[in-house]
Amino acid sequence: MSGFPDRRQDIRAAIPDLRGTLTANAPAAPLSWFRTGGPAQLLFEPADEADLALFLANRPPDLPLTVIGRGSNLLIRDGGLPGVLIRLGRGFAQIAVEDGHRVRAGTGAADVKVARIAAEAGIDGLTFLRGIPGAIGGALRMNGGAYGGEVKDVLVEVRALDNMGAVHVLDNAAMGFAYRHSAVAVDMIFTQALFQGYPGDPQALLARMQEITEARSSTQPVNTRTGGSTFRNPPGMKAWELIDAAGCRGLQIGDAQVSPMHCNFLINHGHATAADIEALGEDVRRKVHETSGVELIWEIRRIGLPG
């Protein structure tokens, strides 16, 4: 692909006070843990919430928007992303301990860092975040959970911007949480979350986090190019067991492979395309359906155009 039209001049002219960075035809592969995918027509990295609100209120309306954080549970397709890819990075990574055993975190903050800061402050209830790769924004959108906890168990409220840049504060009930799902409209961009914990012993909490770290390392391919859990667990079942029973453990297309260690993880061994990874996932879904009648649902978010 030769690239998308460069619209930076249009945006700078329309929004001269914009403080964030704009990059045309930005390589998007480095932004996801799979390390695959074509370019983003425009990559916008806002300086902070106010900068993002300014952009949303004044952006060219013909450019579609896609929002990502740390890219852990994401597959960017090989044809790239038309429109604007908004990446919530350093300006959304603040974490603060508040009175009443609460933690406030920007949605670009790493889940593991939130868990650690809470533990060091003697705040229990958030250690499960150590088991979730990625950032708080993704955990909110998917009601992330691991090791006995879920976001819905600890969330007080979320700050979000609508597609015109207006600020909304959503309480736990307004999030519409279900298993690996939030019912909030996809065009709402989460910017900050407030979590409620309870008193705990810092040393015990840090030890629990270490146990989670060791458990993940011994059961999941954590040091590989992977997107985390590929498919949601069907009700009363485990996706990995269905995949294993269908004979898919170690299945491979090019450099894309079903992890031999944990077969609900797909791995890029270095040269897999997004098409390879997605085709492998679809092959797994077909085989599972043939053997068990169960229709697996993708947990990994797939965005962009086919190559």
TrEMBL record:
It is found in: Cytoplasm. GO terms for cellular component: cytosol. The active site is at residues 180, 229, 299. Its EC number is 1.3.1.98. Its main location: cytoplasm. Residues 35-222 form the FAD-binding PCMH-type domain. Keywords: Cell cycle, Cell division, Cell shape, Cell wall biogenesis/degradation, Cytoplasm, FAD, Flavoprotein, NADP, Oxidoreductase, Peptidoglycan synthesis. It holds the Pfam family FAD_binding_4. The keyword DNA-binding does not apply. GO terms for molecular function: FAD binding; UDP-N-acetylmuramate dehydrogenase activity. It catalyses: UDP-N-acetyl-alpha-D-muramate + NADP(+) = UDP-N-acetyl-3-O-(1-carboxyvinyl)-alpha-D-glucosamine + NADPH + H(+). GO terms for biological process: cell division; cell wall organization; peptidoglycan biosynthetic process; regulation of cell shape. The keyword NADP applies. Its cofactor is FAD. InterPro entries: FAD-bd_PCMH, FAD-bd_PCMH-like_sf, FAD-bd_PCMH_sub1, FAD-bd_PCMH_sub2, MurB, MurB_C, MurB_C_sf, Oxid_FAD_bind_N. Pathway: Cell wall biogenesis; peptidoglycan biosynthesis. It is an enzyme of class 1 (oxidoreductase). HAMAP family: MurB (MF_00037). Cell wall formation. Belongs to the MurB family. PANTHER family: UDP-N-ACETYLENOLPYRUVOYLGLUCOSAMINE REDUCTASE. NCBIfam families: murB, PRK13905.1. This is UDP-N-acetylenolpyruvoylglucosamine reductase. It comes from Saliniramus fredricksonii. The lineage of its organism: Bacteria, Pseudomonadati, Pseudomonadota, Alphaproteobacteria, Hyphomicrobiales.
